[in-house]
Amino acid sequence: MLRTSFSQLARRAYSKSAESLTIGLIPGDGIGKEVIPAGKLVLENLSSKHGLKFNFVNLQAGWQTFLDTGKALPDETIQILKNDCDGALFGAVQSPTNKVEGYSSPIVALRKQLGLYANVRPVKSVEGTNDKPVDMVIVRENTEDLYIKSERSYIDEKTGTRVAEAIKRISETATRNIANIALEIALQRYKVNGKATLTVTHKSNVLSQSDGLFREVCREVYESNKEKFGVVNYNEQIVDSMVYRMFREPQCFDVVVAPNLYGDILSDGAAALVGSLGVVPSANVGSSFVVGEPCHGSAPDIAGKGISNPIATIRSTALLLEFMGHPEAAQEIHKAVEANLREQAIKTPDLGGKSTTQQVIDDVLSKM
């Protein structure tokens, strides 16, 4: 089970004793359609337990939705999420590598429109497996950096050759938001583990203004709140050496905070330390909404074969519940997943097994 109680950071408070929660389900593309049902089944298994009841709304987004409707993220999906849902699960999106007129990533747009400024990605090995000992949380800024998608192409007048440029945006406001939630997570880990370290990842030795601002503001947030966060050790690490050390000495890292691009790369890389992207969850967190999202992509090479790993989605469902303020229900899911991974009897091909998606789902459900 994850050793951070994210529920203490929950951004929503519910007044009903027996809560009826509406969850938006957005499968997206590829294996998203195969793994999001796992999240629904797990929540249905929890219904009537912990005083919770779940309702579900099926919503559209993704590349296929763009091909069908001309919009990768329909307005209706956003409106239903804002007006009718208490949280959501997002599967995966298959984005083209070449520019397609009118298309942009729906998950990036979703994060922006719902104000989901933090992408929280716990990466934890399971005791009793062959994975390196890892227990870190990568907190990725979710709204800016190169992901603002401000690009241009032109012909250089002097050389007559093509040039492409992209703007990297780092703002004080977004950095303060991500630094605060990262420190809050570190503080909760301190309360559970008796120690905690925040590592600020940057490349300010080259990008002195943009990454320099990120580094500067993170330190300001820590220093100005020493009375609250002083128990958290504060470190900084240049991103390239961070990657090296993360693979060589993963046990040295606890909570890592990074700009959008570095956080994306670091968290995907860290997944290799625990066997597969198929087991790594995430939560997109804002001030009033949370979206659980497995870290893997749409995996078109295995889509439709029934062998995709549902663990990342199941864990993302637990994170969703934690951030919505339901830690007991979340821990029931975490314990069942860890039991499955520890036994190593029923596992999908990405972990070296021969089990199907449904067999893994059934095994986790049987352990709840």
From TrEMBL:
GO-annotated molecular function? homoisocitrate dehydrogenase activity; isocitrate dehydrogenase (NAD+) activity; magnesium ion binding; NAD binding
Q: Which Pfam families match?
A: Iso_dh
Cofactor section: Mg(2+)
Catalyses which reaction(s): (2R,3S)-homoisocitrate + NAD(+) = 2-oxoadipate + CO2 + NADH
**Membrane-spanning regions, if any?**
none
Q: Which UniProt keywords apply?
A: Amino-acid biosynthesis, Lysine biosynthesis, Magnesium, Metal-binding, NAD, Oxidoreductase, Phosphoprotein
Keyword check for Oxidoreductase, yes or no: yes
Q: What is one term from the GO cellular component aspect held by the record?
A: mitochondrion
Please give the superkingdom of this protein's source: Eukaryota
- The residue ranges of the Isopropylmalate dehydrogenase-like domain are 22-364
Give the enzyme's EC designation: 1.1.1.87
Q: Name one GO biological process term.
A: isocitrate metabolic process
Q: In which pathway does it act?
A: Amino-acid biosynthesis; L-lysine biosynthesis via AAA pathway; L-alpha-aminoadipate from 2-oxoglutarate: step 4/5
- Member of which family? Belongs to the isocitrate and isopropylmalate dehydrogenases family.
Protein name, per record: homoisocitrate dehydrogenase
Species assigned in the record: Lachancea lanzarotensis
